[in-house]
Amino acid sequence: MPPDISNPIPADEIEAWLRVVATGLLGNPYDSDFPRRVDRWRRSWLPERAWGMQEHGRWVAALATKPLAITIPGPDGGTRDVVADAVTSVTVAGTHRRQGILTAMISQSLAAAKARGDLFSILVAAEWPIYGRFGYAPAVWSADYVYRPRVSPIGFVNPGRVRQVDPDELLGHAPAIFEGFRAQRPGQVQRRRDWWARRLGLDGYEPMSNERSHWFLHDGPQGPDGLLSWKVSRDFELDGRLGSIVVEDLFATNAAAYQDLLAYLAGIDVIDEITLPNLAVDEELRWLLSDGRALKQSYTGDWIWLRLLDVPAALAARGYAVPGRVVIEVRDDDLGGYGTGRFLLTATGDGAECTTTDEPAELRVSQRVLATAYLGGATLRSLRLTGGVEELAPGALGLADAMLRTPLAPANATAF
């Protein structure tokens, strides 16, 4: 008997629905922060985009989606925005696993996204093996770094342009700075003003923690063009042991702001270690250092997973590094089979077109492979070991890789 999935979920069920989410994701539905989380969900609740299952009057499974703009490769090495179906808060209670509940919820959410005309769906996978069977594949990667500033400091471009600010002032500038920052790479998810208000505990939102960040702005010739926040992660001692900090936000719209903010960090007294989590895998910081070994990449891992729902529309929406024409046959054996088809992709300097075609295929790929390569995070050639890439006409693989190439690796600074 198929699971009895509920959708939509009315607003008066939010608190009860969130309890299973909190428990499943190792949170605590009884701590002091939980009512604040309920309030945040209530303010942006979309009943038609929430699913779940109840048993004996208690929620035992949950899934929600929301529309989020994300950058994709654009013309001339830039980016452009599309709205993606963003899946979040996916939970099935440990008491109800292996009953087809997750499959039923994702089936319904993907069908709804396809009906809306969404080009693709995105999520952050709690565990790698879960979402491949639904057609999702890793498309954006993330890296953590540890920087030892006393080994190799950074010089300022203009030190007077970095200043500490209060959250109220920051809110007036943060959305515009972040938009300028995220336009530099594909894969960046939007942060609306409301996102920043929640983060800063303003506009009627209560702070989620009593531990506040230190916030800084960088003032450029045209006004604020960079922002930074950090927290102490280890205090210093009078016996000579120095402290450390962790950077939570580092966003700049230009190279001068980026360098000044990093130089400020490197010059903070009584610390000898700076942790910089969730940056790009090809972060430029190393090239500012006279000794590149002062920066260590401590972690690299998958971040955003992507599932294509409308292959021709998705391929036509993005920009390409070089002009080209290639017939791609996409095989999609996963849930929904939304990507299956044969498509003629034609890219010129003015844009791209992608249509279904009866022409012989020159390249055969799985939907998962194409999803991984879509934002520029991997080449098709590097994915051949998956068995999901087959060159059917000489040169087609090299041409497709050249077209899909991006100048910078995709990255994303924002959880959802």
Highlighted features:
single chain; 416 residues; alpha+beta; 11-stranded mixed beta sheet; 5-stranded mixed beta sheet; 23% helix; globular
Radius of gyration: 23 Å
Describe the sheet with the most strands.
Answer: 11 strands, mixed
Instruction: Kindly estimate the percentage of residues that lie in beta strands according to DSSP.
Output: 25-35%
Arrangement of strands in the largest sheet: 1-2-3-4-11-5-10-9-8-7-6
Helix content: 10-25%
Shape call: globular
Oligomer: single chain
| Separate helix tally | 9
Class inferred from helices and paired strands: alpha+beta
Q: Can you count the beta strands?
A: 16
Rounded average pLDDT:
97
Q: Which blocks of ≥5 consecutive residues have pLDDT under 50?
A: none
Order of helices and strands: HHEEEHEEEHHEEEHEEHEEEEHEH
How far is the N terminus from the C terminus?
Answer: 33 Å
